[in-house]
Design brief:
The chain is 39% helix and 6% strand. The protein has a domain of 93 residues. The N terminus is likely disordered. The chain has five helices and two strands, in the order αααββαα. 13% of the residues are buried. The structure holds zinc ion (2 copies). One zinc ion binds next to α1, β1 and α4. The site of one zinc ion has 8 residues, from α4.
């Protein structure tokens, strides 16, 4: 077992699922970095929208970071590896372009969130945001450590 990452030392929560889930995530992310499908997905999005924006939250790297952010977007396979038959071909339509934050959130849940679930999560989080108040007596937000 030398040279393999130690996946046996998980904290209590999720101890049953975490190791396999982590391996799946690693394989999944490697697949996302490989191949020309990613380039093709970006090319299609640019042609369609004229820009690369997160398909969940609409974050636009170029808009926020200017030239430094141009062309940056992450690519997520919407069909998890374990749901594919051996040798099954991935299509461009199986890819979702996501910002780094949304991509992280997708992979933080088991099973991974779908694009629709991610959009719903964003929408319901926004809907429950407290409205900004200039009231001096308002309670400050709790500090998160
Ligand atoms: Zn996003
Ligand atoms: Zn992914």
């Amino acid at each position: 077992m030398e040279g393999l990452p130690d996946l046996g030392q998980e904290p209590e929560s999720g101890i049953e699922e975490a190791p396999e889930g982590r391996i799946l995530t690693v394989v999944h992310r490697r697949r996302e970095r490989d191949g020309r499908l990613v380039d093709e997905a970006k090319r299609r999005a640019l042609k369609r929208d004229g820009k690369l924006v997160c398909q969940a939250c609409r974050f636009d790297f170029a808009r926020s970071y200017g030239v430094a952010g141009a062309g940056i977007i992450e690519c997520h396979h919407t069909r998890p590896l374990h749901t594919l038959a051996p040798g099954e071909i991935t299509h461009v339509s199986d890819l979702a372009l996501l910002c780094a934050n949304c991509h992280r959130v997708v992979h933080a849940s088991r099973p991974w969130l779908t694009l629709m679930q991610l959009r719903d999560a964003i929408a319901s989080a926004v809907a429950t945001l407290p409205s900004l108040s200039l009231d001096a007596d308002a309670e400050p937000p709790p500090v998160q450590l």
